[in-house]
Amino acid sequence: MGESILECTVLNILRKPGDRVGLDDSILEVATDKVDTEVPCPYNGILVEWLVKENDIVEIGSPVAKIQVQADGVADAGITGKDALVEIIEEEKAAIIIEKELAENVLTQTPDKITYHELGDASTFYSPLVLSIARQENISPQELSSITGTGADNRVTKNDMLAYLKNRNIPASGQQVKTQSVSGQTEIFEMDRMRKMISQRMTESRKISAHVTSFIETDMTPVVNWREAVKQEYRKKSGDSITFTPILIEAVAKAIRDYPLINISVEGDKIIKKKDINIGMAVALPDGNLIVPVIHQADQYDLPALARKVNELAKRARENKLKPDDLAGGTYSVSNIGAFANLMGTPIIVQPQVAIMAFGAIKKKPAVIETPQGDLIGIRSMMFISHSYDHRVVDGSLGGLFLKRVNDYLENFDTRRTLI
């Protein structure tokens, strides 16, 4: 799930005890602070017992189920042969009884003055997660019963609820929240799950790393002029746009090769130097949250391939189609805050990395141009770069030299390059 992920939430259990499961069959859906994903089965066999239930928060690496495999028995259960088959049948019967009892109990509760027994058919099963969403969004029992389910036996799933809510009521912010008015002048609403996790991660990072930020002003005129000259032809031939982001990431990847001690992490009193250069790029999502997909081995891409990769990851991030691998293994991160017209900022390090770079808005301004004939004043496209680094292991010399090297790669950009 990625080295920075410590726990996940069980969203949906996709298979029942007694089901025959195959290698890589999806058996469980979980959510982290970064992505929702399905968990594949690691064996061929029969699912004997679930050790978790929906809505449980589970530590990464802990067992979640017991599976009967051909000759190895059931892990930690000591069940083999005929006894295992009897156990499986009994488990399945018990699961059916428990499921019906859970449905009857949950559907007759009256949380937040919403009573679900009015649905009439007590055999209709709604998972705790679906009921939790219904309570949070003030969906009445009658309204809940009208939602079409796409799950097994036509059950309503989390995705069915989210799709229904998207069409039911979309606030101006694009974020589904439960609000409360106080004296008509203030409004209180709950953070969504991703915002809570972002809040936790950012607070932890400030506590872990001794943040220092350095700045430099970079002359982006060669890059701006080159991009202006090639962007229409690139769009015509590729059907996509060429943004500044792949150019910036390319400069960072080259600078990391020159200064590999920026590509490290800290574990206790040990420094771990990473050989792969995996650059995370911050992407703003439509709901206002932030996610950081990773370009693995970014230094191995040429600029056209890097442009395609950046566009692909950004698109999938905004469509909520990222896989766990897309978010794992980052060794350094960048944020293009210039996309929001910000001149500069002091970004917070993504743990367990030790540095992050933010690129500000590119603005035309008068600047001194040094020539063999003397200094001149001209209009140049200038950009501030902010470099935050962990002063526990990155001193000002390394942090500053690395920043200067990124600056040099951008200012000396080869304008004779082609993209197609």
UniProtKB/TrEMBL annotation:
Transferase listed as a keyword: yes
Keywords: Acyltransferase, Lipoyl, Transferase
Gene3D superfamilies noted in UniProt: 2.40.50.100, Chloramphenicol acetyltransferase-like domain, E3-binding domain
GO cellular component: cytoplasm
Cofactor(s) in the UniProt record: (R)-lipoate
InterPro entries documented for this protein: 2-oxoA_DH_lipoyl-BS, 2-oxoacid_DH_actylTfrase, 2-oxoacid_DH_E2_comp, Biotin_lipoyl, CAT-like_dom_sf, E3-bd_dom_sf, PSBD, Single_hybrid_motif
Ranges of residues in domain Peripheral subunit-binding (PSBD): 125-165
EC class of the enzyme, as a word: transferase
GO molecular function: acetyltransferase activity; lipoic acid binding
Record keyword Transferase present: yes
CDD domains attached to this UniProt entry: lipoyl_domain
Domain (Lipoyl-binding): residue spans on this chain: 1-68
Documented EC number(s): 2.3.1.-
PROSITE patterns: BIOTINYL_LIPOYL (PS50968), LIPOYL (PS00189), PSBD (PS51826)
Summary of subunit composition and partner proteins: Forms a 24-polypeptide structural core with octahedral symmetry.
PANTHER family: DIHYDROLIPOAMIDE ACETYLTRANSFERASE COMPONENT OF PYRUVATE DEHYDROGENASE COMPLEX, LIPOAMIDE ACYLTRANSFERASE COMPONENT OF BRANCHED-CHAIN ALPHA-KETO ACID DEHYDROGENASE COMPLEX, MITOCHONDRIAL
Family: Belongs to the 2-oxoacid dehydrogenase family.
Annotated protein name in UniProt: Dihydrolipoamide acetyltransferase component of pyruvate dehydrogenase complex
Species, as recorded: Dyadobacter helix
Gene: sucB
